């Protein structure tokens, strides 16, 4: 079955707010088994909204309208849909009591226009709002269903979770559902990853493979349509195995929102190992990200940020002003490990414009890792803006650590 999303609101159309609702709803509808081929954004104008509804109705079994259910004059979605389906507006008594009780409890006067949020359409199924005031609804006309949801993301998501998912499952049952999995890769760019997987991508039918370029990493979403989840996961397992045969060396974990710092903290905890870090021009970015991971203090002891050349020389007790060198990186990693008494000592340095040389040009990442009596060194160059380079330095350093921890 086909679904289409219409985001209603001039503020979205003008770019004043980001349309995050469409992203969320697309994922939800896809997982339910709907096919999505179009999305629309329309301002708070009845004529244009009617046109958008008519267009969407000609090609979708479900039209989801998000926004325009509030109390102001430009909130026109319910009124417009009522006109399109040739039905009248009426108050939902449960929703009206919810609105009234809210103002009584808040000890605030309720203006007459707030009752508008309790309007539904005659013949519709009203969807109560567990996180706000404006109710939603589901109504059908000529085999097309119209689902109206509030615009504020928190309200919309809560309404979907509490009422909409089960409602759609009952009224619009799909034989097929979609199961998906996210694979994350680092150390390979999107273009090379796609090239390595070109045969699999060109031959894809079910499951499908979709690459997403992220900052200094790449994510693949593999998805399978199925009637039973077990069948879908079997399809995902099969395609994942083929993917890893080709690019498995770059794979570091699963999850749409997984981070390399979460992966590293989990791995160190599993191995009962500890880590200390020293940074220069990354300004503590690596340590900051690690500290945000739950329970990171159990394995991440802390570290230092030495920003100036003088601070680096003082810390190493040297007068050699050439601080952005392989030797310095190794010494810093060794000293922070000894100072913090940890299993691993990691040094992260990025050559900025003031330290660039012909050997280490701007954007060169220098990293050193010490474990036991062994010191490892690596370098790479990222020719992008400096914020992107710093992000790359953090991610690639932690990934370097991850691979070493696995080997040990």
Automatic annotation (TrEMBL):
InterPro entries: CinA (IPR050101), CinA-like_C (IPR036653), CinA_C (IPR008136), CinA_KH (IPR041424), Competence-induced_CinA (IPR008135), MoaB/Mog-like_dom_sf (IPR036425), MoaB/Mog_dom (IPR001453). It comes from the Bacteria. SUPFAM superfamilies: CinA-like, Molybdenum cofactor biosynthesis proteins. Residues 4-170 form the MoaB/Mog domain. CDD domains: cinA (cd00885). This is Putative competence-damage inducible protein. The gene is cinA. It holds the Pfam family MoCF_biosynth. Belongs to the CinA family.
